[in-house]
């Protein structure tokens, strides 16, 4: 794990984690956990988001999402749920996970994005 503080300012830390896999766990304000793993993680404290890259997986209560890259919006993590913005079946998918929105599943015969 590498922690940097751009401009030396507290509260603007950037955390990069690497592993096989690197893991992420957070207890939300509503008491429900969110956890994930990926080959690499990038968390920006000031912007409140984490990016999971490389065989990425994120689970929140009974919902989960996986793909090559997932962006999790931490500030909006008060409510359960995910919104999948884009997922291609060839594992070159990009996804944005935001709380408060139900995950949408594409028709198995089509590709999104």
UniProtKB/TrEMBL annotation:
Domain Organic solvent tolerance-like N-terminal: 1-76
Alphabetized PANTHER family for the sequence: LIPOPOLYSACCHARIDE EXPORT SYSTEM PROTEIN LPTA (PTHR36504)
Source organism per UniProt: Escherichia coli
Record bears the keyword Transport: yes
Entry-linked InterPro entries: LPS_export_LptA, LptA, OstA-like_N
Swiss-Prot/TrEMBL keywords: Periplasm, Signal, Transport
GN (gene name): yhbN_2
Biological process (GO), any one: lipopolysaccharide transport
Any Gene Ontology CC annotation: outer membrane-bounded periplasmic space
Name recorded for this polypeptide: Lipopolysaccharide transport periplasmic protein LptA
Region feature Disordered, mapped onto this chain: 80-113
Record-level Gene Ontology MF annotations: glycolipid transfer activity; lipopolysaccharide binding
KW Signal (keyword) present: yes
């Amino acid at each position: 794990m590498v922690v940097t503080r751009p401009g030396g300012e507290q509260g603007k830390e950037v955390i990069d984690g690497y592993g096989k896999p690197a893991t992420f766990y957070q207890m939300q304000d509503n008491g429900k956990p969110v956890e994930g793993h990926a080959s690499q993680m990038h968390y920006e404290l000031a912007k409140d988001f984490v990016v999971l890259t490389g065989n990425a997986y994120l689970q929140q209560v009974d919902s989960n999402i996986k793909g090559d890259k997932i962006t999790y919006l931490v500030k909006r993590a008060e409510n359960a749920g995910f919104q999948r913005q884009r997922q291609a079946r060839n594992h070159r998918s990009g996804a944005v996970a935001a709380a408060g929105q139900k995950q949408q599943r594409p028709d198995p015969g089509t590709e999104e994005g």
